[in-house]
Amino acid sequence: MSLDIVKPVHIIFFLQLAFSQPDIRFNPFDWNFYGYSGSINSISFGDRYAFIGTEGAGVLRFNVNNNRFEEAITSAQGLGENFITAVHYSESGMLWVATINALYYSYSSYGDWRSVSLESIGLVNRGYIDRLGDDGKDIWVESSGMLFRLDGSTGIPLETMVRQNKKVKWSSGSNQFNIDYSDILFKYNVSGGWMSSLNTFINPDGENVKIRTIAESDFNQIVIGCNDGTFFVGNKNMRILEPYKYGLSSKDVYAFEGTSGLWAGGRTYGPNSGISYFDINRNIYENYYFKNIINIDETPIFSILDYKKMIFFGGNEKIISYDKKKDSWNQIYLPSGSRSNFVKNIIFNERTMWIATPNGLQIVDSISNDLIENEVTDALKNIFIHDLLFFKNNIYLATESGLLIYNNKNSALYDYADYGYRDKEITFPSSQTSFTAIATSNSDVYFSTRESIIKLDTSNRTWSKTINSAIYQGEEIIDFDVHKNDFFIATVNKLTHYNNKKKVPDYFNYNFLGNINKLKVDSRKLWIGTSEGMFSYRYK
Predict the structure, then answer these.
(1) Is 206 helix (H, G, I), strand (E, B) or coil?
(2) pTM across the whole model
(3) Distances from the Cα of 400 to the Cαs of 154, 352, 373, 430, 449, in angstroms?
(4) Spatial separation of the C-alpha atoms in residues 451 and 448, rounded to whole Å
(5) Which CATH number fits domain 5-170: 2.40.30.20, 3.30.70.2190, 3.20.20.80, 2.130.10.10?
(6) Any bridge partners for residue 414, and if so which?
(7) Averages of pLDDT over each 10 residues, the chain, 540 residues
């Protein structure tokens, strides 16, 4: 069958656009992104994976052999953005990914991305790609009913088409026209407390979830993607659909805590705002949406404490608690202050919770939930408490007016310059210097100021200056963490990695990170909470 050619595409400056190289700064999966997925727009089957295009979390890689997630393909791997409109794994083994602004392709199917602008394809006036396919040689693009044929090796546009080649194998696109899927759903049972009803799914909370896209493999597999980020995987022979969910409930991650699993929360409002639990080893997410939790008000989450059988979430003028054994939720209201009374940090001191806020220190009896006032809370009234740490029977308080140390044994409150022995190497900053964050490594406690990061060796109570402000260019430290000699420092404009033995800083000025809110480092990985979501960085 001959193809009808509308017009040839004039290739002007095309080679430059088609072969624009990504900025290669790291191995493909040294950096990984975990974000809010949004709607699932497209699905394509490869040799091992179902490649799943999302509105916010890039391209998910779901291993159909063992039903497990593997590292997603996102802006951290070189894509220009994480809003995916279409995805396609070609017969030649290349992965093609369409975003709002460009079409990307990779020979390896995960890195070394090249891009083609949508304008160069012929898409103007905010047109975007609805679906992608290939005929064994060339790549086909569909947008608003128009068809475009591109060279399958280079992405160079060849023709604008009226009719498609019958050999084109398309990956799934998003359902923009309310396609009736009831004949497909009728054939399957749905697990996990879900049900199907005509053209939609009903989740365990009784909410209707719209089907966005459906893809079927050559091996009797079916994947159904929905507008809430849930997708279902089934087999045509078994006739059972199992639900899977990838992604956090909040995009702007301000707090996270945990070891084998991470509890995460942020500052995103809306119908899907809530708290997330991320199983690191299995890449499984569970989201607790505020709208579905009885007697819990919606709030941004600024801090998290994992303490014994309880998880505490610091919000805006409240603390939310979750009992892991009883699977029950509760909340404690805090008084308003001259400034917004959000909870910066929470620690436990026996049966009392010490709470850092912009309005000072608040202490709550964890049994009665009563507020406690004493000489410590009086001394810190209306002072911004940035961070708290309970370490070896001392409570360290980083404030806008200096660093204070509360000794639990003698109930004494010290200014840090009066605690321990002055080391020759350090000139103590002014008592008015703002302290913003605290971290520990072995027996050492570290404190950040605009002037430097200083260290207290708790074994001999001596102080020293560890990192000069020139390393992070004198910017205010948002957060930092340390593992042995590896320091990671987040400021307003950058992320800095500084090894205290090598004495050479590395700067990560990556746009995909967004604004950094929280850092946590272990022996191999750095975890980062940002305005874009969560990231991990494998630095060893």
Answers:
(1) coil
(2) 0.90
(3) 56, 23, 21, 12, 10
(4) 8
(5) 2.130.10.10
(6) 405
(7) 38 37 65 93 95 97 93 94 96 96 94 92 87 95 92 93 84 79 89 90 93 92 94 91 92 91 88 90 89 92 95 96 94 83 95 96 93 94 96 95 93 90 69 86 93 92 92 92 97 92 92 94 95 94
